[in-house]
TrEMBL record:
This is NOP2/Sun RNA methyltransferase 3. S-adenosyl-L-methionine binds at residue 216. It comes from the Eukaryota. One of its GO terms (molecular function) is RNA binding. The gene is nsun3. Keywords: Methyltransferase, RNA-binding, S-adenosyl-L-methionine, Transferase. GO terms for cellular component: mitochondrial large ribosomal subunit. The active site is at 270 (nucleophile). Residues 212-324 form the SAM-dependent MTase RsmB/NOP-type domain. Belongs to the class I-like SAM-binding methyltransferase superfamily. RsmB/NOP family.
């Protein structure tokens, strides 16, 4: 049963001062003027926003109306805006929107992710686990959907979600394409909540067989690292942080060995740290002589989503994500 009222997120979390000091040092240099507002969001759990992703494998009767009556609106465009809309400042956005909406080679439209967000950090109640039943919706940080959208998954494609646990993005992947075998997908949705995963660094047994690979790499998750740790744990995590780029580089190389020509590898993290983001991608690109300094890839190494208080930035980013865009 749905609890019909939304509640503000409240929790007692203890801040790890050492981690904050390191972030201040590093991010004021890397992000400049953007850091104070990003810092304010990270330090105020009440301002953290969660999207509500509907599960299209269940009948979602009534939830859409409840969400809309509470002021939630869809994150992704349900229909493409006209070419001169203020939300899509360039033609790339319009093409991306059309691409998100439909698959030209298929007679029926491709399923789109249904995610609702609110202009204020209102938290929709999470749905309790009901044995034998799928959840009708999941709460997740809306920015987590960007790597999944970047995969541009089409029906029938093989996707490897290389660092899957606990499974938020894998769930989003299941919402993006029509599965060949619906019961397998339903089983997957269930399994993902049992936190099943395995650790290896070698994915070469998939050698050149996959079209899409997602590397949502283990990283110094800024938001959670700031909280819930003693000063001893903080020290330990900062040491661990220095070792992460080597692991991330290994995982990204392994993903590249599994993807077939013409496919795509999407690398994502939930840290703002440049040494775990563009530096990792650059290191791997440097392996390939054809990706020299004059390569066009150099100018489009990725999108950095910096937490801000205005939610509209997220919608605009979704429409612009195919072009070079650093917020
Ligand atoms: C950022 S989390 C992934 C979150 C997940 N994609 C999601 O959306 O729920 C990174 C995960 O990678 C796992 N991991 C660490 N080393 C790994 C490895 N060698 N192969 C696969 N996963 C690994 C970690 O245990 C962690 O669960």
């Amino acid at each position: 049963h749905l609890k019909l009222e939304c509640t503000y997120f409240s929790s007692k979390r203890s801040l790890c001062q050492q981690v904050l000091e390191r972030f201040d040092q590093q991010y004021s240099q890397e992000l400049g003027d953007l850091w104070p507002s990003a810092r304010a969001v990270l330090l105020d759990p009440h301002s953290w926003q969660y999207g509500v992703m509907l599960n299209r494998f269940t009948t979602v009767t009534g939830i859409t109306q409840i969400l809309q009556s509470q002021g939630f609106s869809t994150l992704l465009p349900q229909t493409c805006p006209p070419n001169d809309s203020h939300l899509q400042p360039d033609s790339t956005s319009h093409e991306l929107c059309q691409d998100l909406q439909s698959e030209p080679s298929l007679s029926s439209p491709r399923p789109t992710l249904q995610c609702y967000i609110h202009p204020y950090p209102l938290r929709f109640p999470s749905q309790a686990h009901r044995p034998g039943q799928l959840k009708q919706y999941y709460l997740l940080n809306a920015a987590s959907l960007l790597p999944v959208l970047a995969l541009q998954i089409r029906d029938g494609e093989k996707v490897l979600d290389l660092c899957s646990a606990p499974g938020g993005k894998a769930l989003a992947i299941t919402q993006c394409a029509t599965p060949g075998n619906a019961s397998v997908f339903k089983g997957l949705c269930k399994l993902l909540f049992d936190f099943i995963y395995y650790h290896t660094l070698d994915y070469s047994h998939f050698l050149l067989s996959l079209l899409q690979v997602l590397v949502d790499a283990p990283c110094s998750n800024d938001r959670s690292w700031l909280y819930s740790c003693s000063s001893q744990q903080g020290e330990q995590r900062l040491k661990e942080r220095a070792r992460l780029p080597a692991l991330q580089t290994q995982l990204l190389r392994s993903a590249l060995s599994a993807v077939r020509p013409g496919g795509a590898v999407v690398y994502s993290t939930c840290t703002l740290s440049s040494s775990e983001n563009c530096a990792v991608v650059e290191t791997v690109l440097n392996d390939c002589p054809e990706n020299g300094t004059s390569s066009p890839y150099r100018h489009r190494l990725g999108i950095l989503v910096v937490p801000q208080l205005q939610y509209t930035a997220m919608k605009i980013l979704i429409l612009k994500m195919n072009s070079q865009c650093i917020l």
